[in-house]
Amino acid sequence: MNKEKAISIVKPQLTEERFEHTLRVTQTALELAETYNVNKEKVELAGILHDYAKYRPKEELKRSILTSNLPKDLLDYHHELWHGPAGALLLEQEHGINDSDVQQAIRYHTTGKANMSMLEMIIFIADYSEPGRDFPGVQEVRDIVHHDLYRASWLATRNTINFLMQKNATIYPDTFHAYNDLTRQLNGGND
Amino acid sequence: MNKEKAISIVKPQLTEERFEHTLRVTQTALELAETYNVNKEKVELAGILHDYAKYRPKEELKRSILTSNLPKDLLDYHHELWHGPAGALLLEQEHGINDSDVQQAIRYHTTGKANMSMLEMIIFIADYSEPGRDFPGVQEVRDIVHHDLYRASWLATRNTINFLMQKNATIYPDTFHAYNDLTRQLNGGND
């Protein structure tokens, strides 16, 4: 699927503000794809489509989770976490997008996961650090993301866990698994 | 098993300093048992015995984990986490201590877990907050532990996760599960 087609699919689903975020994520992700030599077509597609289900009604997202093989424990966590996994699913059902690399990058863009592929990590960190984002720690991530993608992703998961704990919020297990996995990668396999 | 017998079992296993910690944990735990009306015999036994395996050689703890039904993923995390689960096991093998409530409290005293019993929570928080402990946040836990055991335990898990993330260390999943579970309890079942 080319860029124009992907944009024509996602644009009607988003607010103008969210669409601009989408373009910034895509641009940020493409720059990372260049740095790390990752397939640009897949990065571009995942970037453009990652928030496809962002504004679907909660009940529809819930139904997608309940009627698919997505993990049901998602429903025990904040509904903000549902649009990634449900989005990957709905893009396949509604537009036949079945590239599993792209699907996985969309699915995990909010939570991260253990053993992220380069594509997954690029979408995860582009969504976190695109130039429109403004929260404590994001500049540090931007400063290093082009020379240490693992450490940038580790900082992002750590900041996210901290942020959620400050809010007294629960944390989806995949985010913990991402933190532990990236910690091990940075420590050279040791705890 | 009475107090004197338990002490005679554990004392030879510990340094003098660690034995004094053990007595402070036991005293702290007994005060909490009084406040929350929890079985004092079990609390005392778990308090006295919780660090039984603290100074066993790493190789012995590892063997205990490998040759039992303890979760093998413990071995992927810091060895400081092994003495609780291995201790509960060794106390049964070496001294016939098979009260499952006491075993569980010893097993989870370092990591915590989801759905802790009152006994488990009391040993977990007594170990964390006994008067000899001195680290950021511990006084806040002491200040509330006699009127809000759940919040005190939640603060302890949050502080522990923060502390480990500051050290760039991995975090055992049971600690995350404890955090999420206690967060839900404090939020009245909502995320």
Description:
Two copies of one chain form a homodimer. Chain A is mainly alpha-helical and 191 residues long. The first copy, chain A, has a domain at 3-134: Hypothetical protein af1432. Helix content of chain A is 63%, strand content 0%. Chain A has helices at residues 3-10, 16-36, 40-49, 58-66, 83-95, 100-107, 118-129, 138-144, 149-166, 173-186. In chain A, helix 2 (16-36) runs antiparallel to helix 3 (40-49). The longest helix of chain A is centred in the N-terminal third of the chain and has 21 residues, at 16-36. The radius of gyration of chain A is 16 Å and the shape is globular. The relative contact order of chain A is 0.12. The model of chain A has no long low-confidence stretch (mean pLDDT 96). Chain A binds chain B through residues 76-78, 158, 161-162, 165, 168-171, 173, 176, 179-180, 183-184, 186-187, 191, and chain B through 76-78, 158, 161-162, 165, 168-171, 173, 176, 179-180, 183-184, 186-187, 191.
